[in-house]
Amino acid sequence: MLSQSDFWRNPEGAIKRAYKEMDDEILEDVAGSRGGSTAVTAILIDRKKLMVANVGDSRAILCGGDGVKQVTIDHEPNKEKQVIESRGGFVSKKPGNVPRVDGQLAMTRAFGDGKLKEHITSEPDVRIEIIEPNTVEFIILASDGLWKVMSNEEAFDEIREYDDAQEASQVLIKEALARGSRDDISCIVVAFGWS
């Protein structure tokens, strides 16, 4: 179990250990070998340093006066093909489908998925963004059920006029459903509220 002092000594290492511990917990459960999940997390330190971590295709975008900035990487098989192959796996693509690790998983990083764990990892990418007051209005953290049917810019456009973060996240979920999303949709909007 990580302590607060672990985090302050080495924030990036603490986040990576927390993701590893979560993966271990999921894998201990029987369901961990049959399925998996992606994740995105964000921590704002002293109202200026934003740490964002992700595994898989759950994504975070910063939105504000300067537009939209994606601060996570979608861990797609084509992007990390060499890493998968170096672990003894392969990336394949059937016509009309997306590339998949060992012909099964459309992600190279995920929690769970025990049957593929030799070839995939749960280690997150961790990014640090310095936030200037009043330049970033909010951050959207969402699963691929949103991003498969909406671009980063479209998501920002849908909610740029909303002041209430919870209402904004509900608007995005409803819009993803209206656009026919068939994947899981998890969405959190965090308003920075600088004033």
Element layout with pairings:
Blueprint: H1 4-9, H2 11-28, E1 36-37, E2 39-45, E3 49-55, E4 59-64, E5 67-70, H3 81-86, E6 91-92, E7 100-101, E8 111-112, E9 125-130, E10 136-142, H4 144-147, H5 152-159, H6 165-178, E11 187-191
Antiparallel strand pairs: 1-8, 2-3, 3-9, 4-5, 4-10, 6-7, 10-11
Structural commentary:
With about 200 residues, this protein is α+β, with helices and mostly antiparallel strands. It has one domain (about 5-190): 4-Layer Sandwich (Phosphatase 2c, domain 1), CATH 3.60.40.10. The protein is about 30% helix and about 25% strand. The protein has 6 helices and 11 strands. The chain has helices at about 5-10, 10-30, 80-85, 145, 150-160, 165-180, and strands at about 35, 40-45, 50-55, 60-65, 65-70, 90, 100, 110, 125-130, 135-140, 185-190. The chain has a 4-stranded antiparallel beta sheet with strand order 5-4-10-11. Strands 2-3-9 form a 3-stranded antiparallel beta sheet, covered by helices on one side. A two-stranded antiparallel ribbon has the order 1-8. The protein is globular. It starts with a helix and ends with a strand. The model has no long low-confidence stretch (mean pLDDT about 90). GO terms for molecular function: protein serine/threonine phosphatase activity. This is PPM-type phosphatase domain-containing protein.
